[in-house]
C-alpha cells in the first residue's frame, strides 16, 4: 500500500481539525466551567429554603425579610473501597434552631448523569424535598423527573426504609410511582435518593448555632467561601 | 453549467422562497420542540444561526481540502464543535434558559438544516456566498420558529413574552403549548403557505 492511500494520510484533515477543535473547546470549558458551576451553586442556594421548609414557610420567611443560615461541608463515605463525596448544606432558622440539611447527590440516569438536591429534616429521619439540578433524560418522558408532581412524592418519606418504584400507580408508603414510559429514569432517581440517604443520613447531627458550631466529627473540609452565603 | 445564484440571491432565497421550515421541511425536531414560547424559540433561532454561519464559513474555507468520502465526518465535527460552544455559553450566561431548552441545544448537532447547507452550498461555494446563504437560511428559520411560537404562546397562555395580549376572559388553550399544539400549528401554517403560493402561481399564469 502506498503512503498516499494509507488511511491516516487520507484522514489528515479530520485529525487536524479534531485536534484544533478539541483544544478550542478545552479552552472554552476552562473559561466558562467556573461560571457554570457558580450558576449551579446560586441555584442550589436559592432552592434550599423551599427544600427544607416547604413552599409556604419559605415564602413567609422571605416576606419577613429573614433568611436562613446555610453552611456547607463535605462528607466522605467509604464503601467497598471507593470514597464518595457529598456536599451537605446544614440549615438553621434565623433564631438559631437547626431545621434540616440539603445533600447534593448525583448518579447515572438513563441518558446522562443526574444531579439532585435532597432535603432532609434536622435528625435525618425524613425527606423534606427533592430538586433536580441537572439532567439530560428524554424530553417528554424521563425529563418529567423535574416536575413537581413527580418529585413531590418524595416529600415526607421516611429515611429508615429504602424506597422502591412501582408501576401503574397506587404507590404505598415507601413506594414511588414510576413515570409511565420512563421507568429507568424513575428508578435512577429513586436509587440515587436511596444511596444518598443510606450513606449520609446517619452522619447528620443536630447542631445549634453555626456561630457556636465547632467542628463535628463528620466534618472533613469546610468551604470558607460558602459559609456566609444566605439564601 | 447553469447560472449559480449570487450571494444576495442566496440570502433572499433562504428567508422566504426557500424557507428551511415551510419550504424545505428541515430542522423540524427543534421547530416542534421549542416553540411553546417565544423566548425559547428565539434563543434556539439565535443558537442555530450562530452554528450555521460558523459551520458554513469554516467548511467553505476548507472546501478544497475535503475528501469526498470524509466530508460528512468533517461537517459533523465542525457542527458539533460550534454547538458545544453555544451550549456552554448558554449555560454560563443564560442558565435558566439553558435549563428550559435542556437537551435541545446539544441536539442542534443533528439539525439537518445545518448539514444540508454545508453539503449543498458551503462545500462548493466561496466564503462570501456561504456566509450569505447561512444568514438567509438562519433568518428564515428564525422567522418560522417565531411565527409558530407566537401563535402557540398567544393561544395557549394569552400572553406573548410575558405581556398579556388577549383579554383575560380568554380560556387558555393549554393544548397549544403542549406537543399536539406544535403539530396542529405547523400543519395549519404549512397549509396556509402552500395555499398562498398556489394562489400566486394561479394569478401569474
- Radius of gyration over C-alpha positions of chain B, nearest whole angstrom: 18 Å
Helical amount among residues of chain A, as a percent range?
25-40%
Regions with little confidence, pLDDT below 50 for 5+ residues of chain B: none
Quickly count the helices of chain A.
Answer: 6
Count of beta strands of chain B: 2
What's the overall average pLDDT of chain B, rounded? 88
Please give the oligomerization state of what you see: heterodimer
Number of structural domains of chain A = 1
Distance between the termini of chain A: 67 Å
- Could you say which structural class the secondary elements and strand pairing of chain B correspond to? mainly alpha
Termini Cα gap of chain B: 28 Å
Number of helices of chain B: 8
Level of helix content of chain B? Answer: 55-70%
Shape of chain B: globular
Which terms summarize this structure?
heterodimer; A: 231 residues; alpha+beta; 6-stranded antiparallel sheet; two-stranded parallel sheet; 6 helices; 25% strand; globular; disordered C terminus; B: 205 residues; mainly alpha; 8 helices
Q: What would your notes on this structure say?
A:
The complex is a heterodimer of chains A (231) and B (205). Chain A contains 6 helices and 8 strands. Chain A is an alpha+beta fold and 231 residues long. In chain A, the strands form 2 sheets. In chain A, strands 5-4-3-2-1-8 form a 6-stranded antiparallel sheet, sandwiched between helices. In chain A, strands 6-7 form a two-stranded parallel sheet. In chain A, β2 (82-92) and β3 (98-108) form a beta hairpin. Chain B has one domain. Chain B has helices at 7-15, 28-33, 38-61, 71-93, 95-101, 112-122, 127-157, 179-204, and strands spanning 159-160, 163-164. In chain B, β1 and β2 (163-164) form a beta hairpin. The longest helix of chain B is centred in the C-terminal third of the chain and has 31 residues, at 127-157. The two termini of chain B are 28 Å apart. The model of chain B has no long low-confidence stretch (mean pLDDT 88). The chains are: A alpha+beta (231), B mainly alpha (205). The A-B interface holds A 10-11, 13-14, 17-18, 21, 24-25, 28-29, 32, 35-36, 39, 42-43, 111, 135-136, 139-140, 143 and B 33, 62, 65-67, 70, 73-74, 77-78, 81, 84-85, 88-89, 91-93, 95, 102-104, 106, 179.
